[in-house]
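Quick one: structure for this chain?
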Amino acid sequence: DSAKDVTATFKPFSLSSTDTGIQCLERADGGTDADNLVNGKPKVDVEYEFKIVVQDQGGTPQYVKLYMTQRNNPLPADFYEYAMTCNGDFSTGADCSYKTKLGPASVHKFYIEVKFSDDTIITYPQAGYITGPQVQLLTNYNLVSVPREISTAGLDGINAFGTSYAYRWVSDGLTTDSNKGHYEQVTITIPVKTGEGYFAKKETNLTLPELGTPTDISDSTFTITLGSGWNIISNPYGGNVKLSNVLVKKGDGNPVSWGEAATNKWLYNAIYYYNGSDWGNTYAFESTGGNPDATLTPWMGYWIYLNKGDDTYKLVIPKP
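Got it. Here's what it folds into:
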């Protein structure tokens, strides 16, 4: 009940972003962060860099994470987390970032969370989420997928991709023609499956349907049975999966790493994605040999090549 001299020492914590477009986001190629257009044409391999400046004058944060989902009305469990890489002095403000491709989902929502050195947890934004860029489908055909639990949904091409022109690839096995196989149209009786990739034609929709009702795959791993020769596979989860974390199982044996399977010549060390008709109907690829961060991105499809036909081979994809 009387005057006192009080001294307080503050060790500020802060998250900040100075972006003029979508907060905490830039395109690696310097284009507008609102879309995936290059010279007015949608491009599949545009990279986006999520960025935040973190100040922790009390020390080093315990973690800096990006959380992202592809749902309009997400629940906390719908978000996948990614560790961000930080450079600089935290006492004055370190730059933290995470770079990735994004599939043509109907929406990307994200936020950033930091646990500071004193256990304080702060998110950016403080409430709600940031809506990411519109990643448009390519002109004409796209190599796409559905990372949802749709095993009982019976989705045809229209419901899954917004088009009746949707096709899966069926491997006919290794023969004298290493490309042997055929396309099969997706129908209600032969519906879309999680873990498969499909060629789907862009018609009126700029992006794939949200499919907001089906849940995400909850199992800790997801298994894809491969056919000899070419296969179109996909990431069954709504979060990025590094190719180096994918396992390959031969018959009843123990699963081995993707890299070991490639060394054993079970499969090619490459995942091929389609660039689209605007970009010469060409393919590009990623591999663990050339890029340790090679990633299976949700909503995209990939060609892979199984070299063997002597046993049953399966991909075992871990939940991110």
